[in-house]
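Lay summary. Proteins are chains of building blocks that fold into shapes, and those shapes determine what they do. In this project we predict the shape from the chain. Here is one chain we studied, written as its sequence of building blocks.
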Amino acid sequence: MAMPPSASWYLGLAAVRAFLIAAVFADPSVRWRLRPTRANGRPAFGVYRAASLDGPYAPFGIQSVLVANDQVQEITTFTQGELFPRFGLAYPGER
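And here is the predicted shape, written in a compact code that computers can read:
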């Protein structure tokens, strides 16, 4: 799992799980929503984040997934919400 341009990356299920628990899902008031798309021929998602339970969702980034042998092999998240229009993804309030 990588998040360019951050120099950090996580290798293996245990490392990815530990990162997600400690950083991504640590605050229960933060909510996430995914919308399917494609990037470079791969399955991908537009990732939306709401900073509070009653807050609006905002574009967070594009997440590309490499699947092989029916397993996720690689996850790359580009934390640039401004990329959403290039993937046909709506901003909050748009349908």
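What the prediction tells us: The mean pLDDT is 90.
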